[in-house]
Write a structure and sequence with these properties.
Layout lengths: L4 E4 L2 E5 L10 E4 L2 H9 L6 H17 L4 H9 L6 H11 L6 H29 L4 E5 L14 H10 L3 E7 L6 H13 L3 E4 L4 H6 L5 E4 L3 E3 L4 E4 L2 H11 L3 E4 L5 E2 L16 H4 E2 L2 E2 L12 E4 L6 E4 L2 E3 L16
Parallel strand pairs: 4-5, 4-7, 5-6, 7-10, 8-11, 10-15
Antiparallel strand pairs: 1-2, 2-3, 8-9, 9-14, 12-13, 15-16
This protein binds 5-S-methyl-1-O-phosphono-5-thio-D-ribulose (MRU).
């Protein structure tokens, strides 16, 4: 199982996802500031993986005797949308004993629980799939985006192991190409049959009845099931509704945020316009071209056939358990 990071000799080693799949470079992160930068620059990305990285960032802060409140504030400012980040920070801040050993043990527990959740999501999600089917997905929700196995990708992996997957269509996922770079890499390593498509090809693929179901991940789910996920997800949900294709969201309960009642309250990160105007470092747009670059969109709960968590499959009106409340963001 690929792992996006590991704790070794008092440092956080992180697989630099910005240079995958062509280079396997491990970053050595020695301070919470290093971790905050790695999250903001997307060396690590994916909601659950960001949460785990932030928890290890707190362990680095505890190790150096830094005020944990200060580290929490800095890490919380790294990316705004994925709630797993804030949930992990809350968990560390709630410890009675803020010693390095205790903070590290909690970070390791968050990482371990995430793998367990993903395996359970895989089992519940695979049960939803009819016979052999083709699945459409977006972004990267695999081992790299989590602590292992993955969320939407976890369902694909488990279902493939059961002989239920005939084809995976992976949206390339403009502008950072997580689908083309990362999901394709993971699918290839597992020998799962797949094709990458341009994001704009998804509706046409559904119109040709080549997709039996859509499965996506999530960065934050509101109490009514509205789901923030990678930009382009809403367009998939709308097309799926139109063509009668089931649309599932897969995420651990750590992605559910009951402190917000609808998706309108989710802060959507807007990233640097250069992600759109440039291909790698090369400018492709006319000089001074204005862009709008939201990293996520919100899919209304009413477009979602079911949300798969480690606790099972929930359908509208999404009766989530009341304990899934984060105390603070930012
Ligand atoms: O901007 P990213 O790459 O951190 O966004 C991650 C996503 O949106 C993923 O698609 C995902 O569904 C959430 S992580 C499993």
């Amino acid at each position: 199982m690929i792992r996006p990071m590991r704790w070794e000799s008092g440092q956080l080693l992180m697989l630099d996802q910005r240079v995958l799949p062509h280079q396997e470079t491990w970053l050595q992160l020695e301070s919470w500031e290093d971790v905050a930068r790695a999250i903001a620059d997307m060396a690590v990305r994916g909601a659950p993986a960001i949460g785990v990285a932030a928890a290890y960032g707190m362990a680095l802060a505890a190790c150096s005797g830094t005020d944990l409140k200060l580290a929490r504030q800095g890490l919380a400012a790294s990316r705004p949308t994925a709630v797993n980040l804030f949930r992990a920070l809350d968990r560390i801040m709630a410890l009675d004993d803020p010693s390095y050993e205790r903070v590290l043990a909690e970070a390791q527990a968050i990482e371990r629980e995430d793998v367990e959740s993903n395996l359970a999501i895989g089992t519940f999600g695979a049960e939803l799939l009819p016979g052999r089917c083709s699945v459409l997905t977006i972004c990267n929700t695999g081992s790299l985006a989590t602590s292992g196995h993955g969320t939407a990708m976890g369902i694909i992996r488990t279902a493939f192991g059961q002989g239920k997957i005939s084809m995976v269509y992976a949206c390339e996922t403009r502008p950072r190409l997580q689908g083309l770079r990362l999901t394709a890499w993971e699918l290839q390593q597992d020998g799962i049959p797949f094709r990458c498509i341009a994001d704009g090809a998804a509706a046409s693929l559904m119109s040709q009845r080549k997709v039996d179901c859509v499965i996506v991940g999530a960065d934050r789910i509101a109490a009514n099931g509205d789901t923030a996920n990678k930009i382009g997800t809403l367009a998939l949900a709308l097309a799926a509704k139109h063509f009668g294709v089931p649309f599932y969201v897969a995420a651990p309960t750590s992605t559910i945020d009951l402190s917000i009642s609808t998706g309108a309250e989710i802060e959507i990160e807007e990233r640097d316009g250069a992600e759109i105007t440039h291909a790698e470092e090369t400018p492709v747009a006319p000089e001074n071209c204005e862009v709008w670059n939201p990293a996520f969109d919100v899919t209304p709960g009413e477009l979602i056939t079911g949300i798969v968590t480690e606790e099972g499959v929930t359908k509208a009106p999404f009766p989530f358990s009341a304990r899934l409340r984060v105390s603070s963001t930012r």
